[in-house]
């Protein structure tokens, strides 16, 4: 079937040319195309194979038909309104010229016939022989002219028929686009109704919210022991809410004075001592008392006064669906987006925001125990997500060679530098040095997929943290972020997956689980749980909290193997002391909802500063215009910068081709402040800071910086 014919088929039809044909088991077949998925079951494996073969043959035929049709270019973006008007104007002009050509042909035929008659009359007259031969030759030439003229007009008629045929195909294609738009609008409306119905059904279900309250009261937190695969990265998978799994761990709070007696009935697998949980000399105590009030304490320190607000976000209307429908299935970084979807910060600045709770690492330096230090590192890894809960806007994609520095050496003891080291795929290198005893570095590549209902953002790359005095070297990776309700409803963000933090010196580990949101879960939303264990596998601390609010730590005094669950898995029961708060989120500033929900730190990230590199994100003009509320000018400037970057890329590609033809090596883009090395811990090739930036800043020598703005 052609695309136009597909628009008139019954509801439920699947276009085989773009369908995925899979087999679940010996008898089941799965057909999927876009938002539709059908599960078919055959009577036997032989019958299933016959159906699969027939479907594959039909799919191949459909692909050939699609490729042979000039009116179906599925990979091309739909023509704009101006293109359609130009197409109709061209067809109208072509038809007019063909009418003129047809009129000329009629005149040629008429005058040619008259000429031949005149020549025939002359030939019949009694003229000398020489004159008769000349008249005969002229008559033959006139006949040839008439034959040629007829051939020309026949070719013109064929051309006209062909143009009319293609015109009808183009009209069918336009009609098909209109039909598809109507169908999509109906589908979205139906989806919204189903969404509302499901919410009402969940609210009315009496057994989901109140069941098993006894278990919930004794279980302080649960952690799934087996590390699952990051299935969010599977772009062809669609996710549905399900009932929560049975917990692999159960924690019970014990009284420090009577924990030995209360634990006497447990078959102890490991024991700790409550005196280790000393309130006077433990670093946890200072964290418990000062975490929430840190922002108040910081105000007492002598420091440079920084801005506390930015211009309010303008209220611009935008047709979201008209833009997003062309983005389904594409890499987000390759889609030209207006600034209406952005926030006035670059991805380099968002990466620097991870340091908002840097004081957790300052406290971790003071820890004598590596497992205790691991608790602070785990809390720090979770705290970086606290700024994302309301931040549904997209940061600016950095230009290749763009940098961002955050020099807080005098105020907070650290200085940070980011550089965009690759454009496709987008990758940023980050290095932070703290004179208080730690260094952090990472190279993050963002992989993102838009799937119609949700947007998945998968940060790829390891984060390294090393403490100077102890040499403890921690490595972990980020979890998947998902933006829901892209088309219908209010946008909201969820974090899901697992973080495994490893101390490569002591071999201590911390397994953190970010529980995805579910309608049917009894847990609080945005829950995070985990266990800190040493090299031998002995558990020392239980971590629990919410990634947008706080993280607590409970010391394990005794552990035992509990009863076996219905699934055959044996649960571990941890008896713990009272939890201590390691980290608590700072409150958002006043009027944050009109300032892109920026935190106090985020409000200062794009504040103009002197002496920064000419490639610094603060100097990016489209981002500055957007922050000032001049969005139309920002869109124009954004297009100019992107076109300038494309021109540089084309020149670099031409240089690569020229070098290849000459048999020379071409290195491509080389980062300015970072260099690629094989990491000795993970074995991966990553960009690490090679030095020179802060020295260049002191000298104000930016001669090596490229002109990217």
Automatic annotation (TrEMBL):
GO terms for molecular function: cholesterol binding. Residues 1-60 form the PH domain. It is a peripheral membrane protein. InterPro entries: OSBP_sf (IPR037239), Oxysterol-bd (IPR000648), Oxysterol-bd_CS (IPR018494), PH-like_dom_sf (IPR011993), PH_domain (IPR001849). Keywords: Coiled coil, Lipid transport, Lipid-binding, Membrane, Phosphoprotein, Transport. GO terms for cellular component: cytosol; perinuclear endoplasmic reticulum; plasma membrane. Residues 174-201 form a coiled coil. Belongs to the OSBP family. This is Oxysterol-binding protein.
